[in-house]
Design brief:
It is a single chain. The chain is α/β, with parallel strands linked by helices. Helix content is 37%, strand content 20%. It contains 10 helices and 14 strands. The chain has helices at 22-44, 69-82, 102-110, 122-130, 133-137, 201-214, 257-268, 286-299, 308-317, 340-363, and strands at residues 6-7, 13-14, 56-61, 87-91, 116-118, 140-144, 156-162, 190-194, 219-231, 237-238, 248-252, 274-277, 303-305, 327-338. Strands 3, 4, 5, 6, 7, 8, 9, 10, 11, 12, 13 and 14 form a 12-stranded mixed β-sheet that branches. The relative contact order is 0.16.
């Protein structure tokens, strides 16, 4: 299974396997680390940094793979709109097709009043957007996956850490999956530990303590992912208990398949009848759809279980009534075990401070 992960002695998850291991992996990681260090020094000095005339809040992570950025970006946008601000989301849009991506489709559906700018050059995309009538109304930016996108200056950096994959047990790319060394957390304003549902409370607290050893500058919060319903292709919601005892086939192409799989097993009270774990952002082309259909014909599942992000692409692959069994996707929400009030206050304060500064400068 692609993306399979094993537990270490502390109950955290290890893996997936590195892109390059052994001696060559170590050498490549050192080279990569030197490049990242030089790059960060340039950005620290302000070289090549674009500063917009409105607040920018970044939500990102240290590692490659899913940590829960999408639900947190949605929550941050809710906080900002509740405070009277009008955010725009900027994201790269991995493997986007026709200018859209799976994340962009999710944001458009969940946040109909929030514009989404998609493009590998987010600075250029935002500059162009701000020149439009719609862009004039946006008074703050939320950067999706923005911790390493330092070309854009920000007033607040939120970094997510998957509590099932502590960065202290990982290595830099390509010997591991870290985009930056753990020491880079020193520039974060907040660190949010995610996937607490898959780790003991003691394990989360211990990880939080180790992160504070890196820096006392940031605040912390702890969250877990919760399935509050299952949705069918027509948008109908059913209780998650409908999955219990079902013969289900699991399919996903996300950054952290282990967390999705573990929650499915917990909710269904059993292992999937079959599963297909694809690389993150897989486009679900014709060959993949044929492979899925062949697997479904062989095992005849009661339900096909996918994520919301996967469904944004699968929905266009085939009409809903042609799937050989019901297709369900969990409606996922992020639940704070602690730290939500402090994080919300930080985001609003940083955004308002930057907005007030912008208005003061304009008034001169």
């Amino acid at each position: 299974m692609i993306g399979e992960r094993l537990q270490d002695d502390a109950g955290a998850m290890v893996g997936p396997p590195p892109l390059l291991s052994g001696f060559f992996g170590s050498v490549a990681a050192k080279t990569y680390g030197a490049v990242i260090a030089a790059r960060n020094r340039r950005f620290d000095a302000g070289v090549g940094v674009v500063t917009f005339d409105r607040p920018v809040i970044s939500v990102g992570n240290l590692s490659v793979g899913g940590t829960g950025k999408t639900p947190l970006v949605k929550r941050v946008c809710h906080w900002l709109t509740q405070a009277g601000l009008r955010p725009v989301i900027a994201l790269r849009g991995y493997r986007a097709s026709l200018g859209r991506s799976d994340e962009a489709e999710l944001y458009a559906a969940a946040l109909p009043g929030v514009p989404v700018v998609v493009g590998s050059d987010r600075a250029a995309g935002l500059s162009e957007f701000f020149g439009t009538s719609a862009g004039e109304g946006a008074d703050c930016v939320v950067l999706d996956d923005g911790f390493q996108h330092r070309r854009i200056a920000r007033c607040c950096d939120i970094v997510l850490v998957d509590s099932t994959r502590p960065p202290f047990t990982d290595r830099l790319l390509p010997a591991g999956w870290l985009r930056e060394p753990v020491a880079s957390l020193a520039r974060a304003d907040a660190v949010v530990l995610t996937h607490g549902e898959a780790r003991s409370r003691a394990g989360v607290v211990a990880l939080e303590a180790r992160l504070w050893d890196v820096s006392r500058r940031f605040i912390t919060a702890a969250t877990r992912h919760h399935w509050n319903a299952l949705r069918s292709p027509d948008g109908e919601s059913v209780g998650v208990d409908r999955l219990r005892g079902a013969r289900y086939m699991l399919v996903c192409a996300i950054g952290n398949p282990s967390a999705f799989r573990a929650e499915a097993v917990r909710v269904a009270l059993g292992e999937p009848t079959a599963e297909l774990i694809l690389r993150d952002h897989d486009p679900y082309g014709p060959s993949t759809i044929r492979r899925m259909m062949a697997m479904m014909a062989a095992v005849k599942p009661d339900v096909l279980l996918v994520t919301e992000k996967d469904w944004t692409k699968l929905a266009t692959a085939m009409p809903a009534n042609e799937w050989p069994c019901p297709v369900w996707r969990p409606h996922l929400e992020i639940v704070f075990d602690r730290g939500e009030a402090a994080l919300r206050a930080l985001v609003i304060a940083k955004a308002m401070e930057a907005k007030d500064r912008r208005q003061l400068i304009r008034g001169r």
